[in-house]
Structure formats: C-alpha cells, structure tokens
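Structure tokens please, single chain.
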Amino acid sequence: MAIRTEEQLIAFVQETVRLTPVTDIHTHLFAESFGDLLLWGVDDLLTYHYLIAEMFRFRPDLSYDDFWRMSKTERADLIWQTLFIDHSPYSEACRGVVTVLNRLGFDLSTRDLESYRAYFREVQASDYIDRILELAGVKTVVMTNDPFDDYERERWSGGGSTDPRFLAALRIDPLLNGWDSAYMKLQQQGYAVMQDFSGDTAAEVRRFLHDWIGRMNPLYMAVSLPNDFAYPEPSLRGRVIDECILPVAEEAGIPFALMIGVKRKVNPSLKDAGDSLGYSDIGAVERIVSGHPNVKFLVTMLSRENQHELAVTARKNRNLLIFGCWWFLNNPSLIEEITRMRLELLGGSVIPQHSDCRVLDQLLYKWDHSRTIIAKVLGDKYTDLLRAGWRLEEDEIRRDVEGLLGGAFWTFLGKPDPSAK
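Here you go.
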C-alpha cells in the first residue's frame, strides 16, 4: 500500500521501527546455561560501571576502597540514593534505569527500591529472560564468549548455550592485547605455543581458533583494541593478526570484528569504570580492510571524531560493515547525529545500533531509546523522498527497517536469519 501523507508516513515509520524484532549483534549477555555470567535484576542494573563512575562525581567524601568493600546490595543502595534521590536521574545511564523500571510496570512515584527488589527475589531467570526479550522486541542476542576465561570454558564443556536465541561470538582480546599471559593459557589447554612466538606457535594459534570455532559456531571473531592501534605494525600483535586471525577468518568464512578506541584504566581505582577513549587512526582500518578483500570486517569506533572517516571508508570497501554507537557514543544526541550521517552516506548498508548490554535488563532501555531515534531519522529521510514525489510503499519501508535492525547483518554474513525458520 502506498503512503499518501506525511502524517501517515511518520506514524507508519514509528510503528514499524517499534514492532520490528531486533538481532542485537553485540552484547555481553549470556544464556541461562552460563550460570553466574548472566547478570540481571535491579541490583546488577544499579551497580553497572557507568553508574559507579557517575556516583563518584557526587561523593568526594567516599574512598574507592570503602566502596569496593561494600556488598553489591550496599553499592546499589548508595547509587540509588546518590543518583536517583539526591539528584534527578536525567543522565542517559540513569534515565535507562528509570525506563527499565517503568517498562517492568513498577510504581516509580514511590521510589521504593526495596519494593522493586521484591519482584526479582520471586521471578525465575528463565521466565525473566523471556519477559525481557519480548518487551525489548529482541529476537536474537549475540554473546561475547571468551575461551580464556576458566569459568566460561567450563560452560562450553557442558555444551554452551542451550537457548537458540543466544548465539556466540569468539572474543580474542588476550591473543592481541595480552600475549604474555595468553600464551600460558594456551599451553594449559594443550597448544604448543612459545612466548617469543617461535616454532609452531602461529600454527598452534590457528589450531586453537579453529577448535573454538568448531565448538562455539561463532558468528564472528572480535577484539577490543586501544586507540593507538596500528596496522600493519612490526609487533607481536601484528604477527598474530597477519599469521593467525586473518587466515582463519578467511578459511572459516566468518568476519573479524574490530572495536577500536579504548584507553584502559585511566583511573585504575574505578576498576571497570575507569576506562576511557581516544581518537584512532582510520588509516589502520583502511589498510587492513582494503588489503584483505576476501575477509569480512565488522568495525565500530569509540571516538565521535572517527565516525565520518569510518563511514567514508565503508563506502569504499564492500567487505566492511560498520555497526553501532558504542559505549560513550551511546547517548541520544550522538546516536542521532551519527545515524543520520551514516544513512546519508551508506543508505541501509549499516547496522545503526547494538546494545553492548552487560545486564539483561538494559535491553529494554537501550532498544527503546535507540528505536525512537532511528525512527526519527528514518522519518525525516522518507519525508524528503515523499516531498520529492517518490512513491513510498509500506512493504518497502518494512523491508528497509528489517535490514537496519538485523537483516543487513545476516546478509553480510551470508547466512540466513535463524529466527526466520
């Protein structure tokens, strides 16, 4: 059916974006079979590292050591009091918590944290997973899976994910960012590697990657890289990329996902909340992508200042799919700016957002907030077309939205969307 008026168009776009199920292509969530790795509930939501860092800005009297000695419940109480009672919760991280509690049906006028906790003491994890995925409109979650983590490795020995909605991604940060300890982990798993990368080390690393690809069936291999990442470079990281990661990615037919721009522990006292960001050299992306046309690359960059260059690089390399507004970019004003620019340069050949959730509940607010922005930008773009005399069909808009919310990802992988079976 053709759309005739701008009012009809905007309403249809908003409704379509709201109702279209999402493939969330990068999260730190886990299926229930991964036990304690799955974080959920109001205390995990409140003690997320974004909120920890924000809380300390209002509490110069509190020492870091005293905070870390607290129990999770005590930390959550402190954060609730500081950020939600003593101050209005309009930062994006705080607003996210409010959105989650609202979507779960809690009475926010009471501001009664204990009454909210009572619900989570009664609900089962499996039922809660079902509820959150349904409310968030998320059909598929891509996990981040680390074979160097002893606890997680045990879960894979038991079969890994037993939930078809939770799919794997092979995380390889230790290989590229921490070889001096990673090689010992590899030796413990039976791989004949050497600290100086001599002998059969490269072949053994490739064997390790192939083994875990066979075990996990991951959709891609992924690494988070510092803002000074360079390629090519005469370093051990450069050798691992060239001699191990890229050959395996091509042989296995899965993308190499690069998440670039992290500065680790600029304030170590904050632990996970102490990481920051930096501007990166887009030339590294250009060289690795254009130099390996038979390898597919997923790329996201952390600095706002990198976004335009990254989009232009994607225009020139069809084996590059850019995705998401990551970490410190996950704020409404920046999501809108970046999404608008990407659609203007790349059309629908982009994944505008991923949640990067570490707590299951965050799916509610990250997708609610992002959907609103994506619908706004798309509405503007379709309005431009309508005013220019272009016929807009409802089915075509549905097709476009499905692409942006996951379809383009599956097309890029060259795989059918398993949820469509």
